[in-house]
Amino acid sequence: MIIELRRIFESDDIKQEFAYEFDAGDELISTPIVVKGYVKNATGIVSISAEADFSVSTQCAKCAKDIRKKLNVAVDHFLIDELHDEDNDEYIVVEDMNLNLDDLVLEDIYLSLPTRFLCKNDCKGLCPYCGMDLNEGSCDCKKPIDPRMAALQALLSDDE
Ligand SMILES: [Zn+2]
Ligand SMILES: [Zn+2]
């Protein structure tokens, strides 16, 4: 959605609400992104404040289980028509008075997403030897102290 900001910038006391949804066009984000919020001008300071709700569908980085998480990301910025000496992510420069809200929301979402997802914080992952899901029990594989030791053990056990 494009928000036309001229009217907002030109009035000192105005608040314009919006609520809409859009598709991220991304495999990770599995639902439309629902955005709700407002732009306002309070005595010359223009800001946007919104929340984006969506779900991600991905796999646990440790055990590869399918996971789906509902997430909520806040989108809060000051909007300025030209850059003075602000050097801060909080400030968004909208020179042509048109704010592309989809782009801004997506940017904030991608900045906030973790680099990997886990099915639960203490996921034990899979045994690197037999592939057993260690969340469901333990296997008989020896736990090596060091990956180089593991390689050595694998070599030795081939001789058996
Ligand atoms: Zn997991
Ligand atoms: Zn195992």
Number of strands: 7
User: Outline, from the CA principal axes?
Assistant: elongated
**Rg of Cα set:** 24 Å
User: Are any ligands bound, and if so which?
Assistant: zinc ion
Order of helices and strands: EHEEEEEEHH
- Can you summarize the main beta sheet? 5 strands, mixed
Which characteristics define this entry?
160 residues; alpha+beta; 2 domains; two-stranded antiparallel ribbon; 7 strands; binds zinc ion
Q: What would you note in describing this structure?
A:
This protein has 2 domains: 111 residues, no CATH class; 37 residues, no CATH class. 18% of the residues lie in helices and 37% in strands. By secondary structure, it is of the alpha+beta class. The chain contains 3 helices and 7 strands, in the order E-H-E-E-E-E-E-E-H-H. The longest helix has 12 residues. The protein binds zinc ion (2 copies). The site of one zinc ion (ZN) has 7 residues, from loops.
Give a brief description:
This protein is of the alpha+beta class and 160 residues long. 18% of the residues lie in helices and 37% in strands.
Write the layout of secondary structure elements.
Blueprint: E1 2-4, H1 6-10, E2 13-22, E3 33-42, E4 45-59, E5 66-80, E6 91-93, E7 98-100, H2 101-112, H3 147-158
Parallel strand pairs: 5-6
Antiparallel strand pairs: 1-7, 2-3, 3-4, 4-5
